[in-house]
Amino acid sequence: MLRQFYSQVVRVSKRSKADFTPRRGGFTFKQFFVAHDRCAMKVGTDGVLLGAWAPLGQARRVLDIGSGSGLIALMLAQRSGDEVTIDAVELDEAAAGQARENAAASPWPQRIRVHAQDIHHYAQRHAAEYDLIVSNPPYFEPAVACRDQARHNARYTETLTHEALLACAAQLLAAQGTFCVVLPHDIGAEFERLAQQSGWHTAAKVNVSDRADTPLHRVLLALTRRETPLQAQALAIKQADGSYTDDFRRLIADFYLFY
């Protein structure tokens, strides 16, 4: 779906001040540009879904674990007010540097802080600080090594297992906070099971499919440390004719250039 950016020159919504043309090496959204040519993992639908959906509520302090290009941090900055600060933690130095540049070039440079470090070390100094934590984490089990070490770290769970991610989030999250992830649907089911075993509760879940009649392929999860009624829903991205569904249009309307 995001390939449409490369083939269209479109007018920005009335909220924006200028027209934008998609540029090589990144993506232009309505209010910001994300360069990703120095990042192992590029801008993709998973990050867009999480950034548009994660429930901000009354959050004042937000953390993005494994920020990559800074896409999700930027989307959350756009969705929130000036009182909200966002920390983006990224292990890879090159990606962190590019995320820092993307934040500096955005309308919210004072609200986004990028930290080039391991989340395990970061968690030791920032316990119980965050109202909302988001992550588009690695999910491949270690297998054949990738030639690009940065891409390997971004895709495989060697540097951040799901058990370790849950433990770090539990350490970093405030008592009433929410932890949100996006994962492949089958892996998300196992992640949810692990979370429940370690004291998490699922507050919200969105099962994502390409179309209503195709298998589920992604899941968005919102986890809390307190028991709360589950809000579950389904999201189909496209209709039978290939056009976007109304639900998906509403979700990304503030971000995609062609809405």
TrEMBL record:
Q: Please give the catalytic activity noted in the UniProt record.
A: adenosine(37) in tRNA1(Val) + S-adenosyl-L-methionine = N(6)-methyladenosine(37) in tRNA1(Val) + S-adenosyl-L-homocysteine + H(+)
Q: What is its main location?
A: cytoplasm
Give all residue intervals belonging to the Methyltransferase small domain.
58-190
Q: What is its EC number?
A: 2.1.1.223
User: Which Gene Ontology terms cover its molecular function?
Assistant: nucleic acid binding; tRNA (adenine-N6)-methyltransferase activity
Per the record, what is one GO cellular component?
cytoplasm
Q: Where in the cell is it found?
A: Cytoplasm
Q: Which UniProt keywords apply?
A: Cytoplasm, Methyltransferase, S-adenosyl-L-methionine, Transferase, tRNA processing
| BP GO annotations | methylation; tRNA processing
**Protein's job:** Specifically methylates the adenine in position 37 of tRNA(1)(Val) (anticodon cmo5UAC).
Protein name per the record: tRNA1(Val) (adenine(37)-N6)-methyltransferase
Organism of provenance: Serratia marcescens
Q: What is the lineage of its organism?
A: Bacteria, Pseudomonadati, Pseudomonadota, Gammaproteobacteria, Enterobacterales
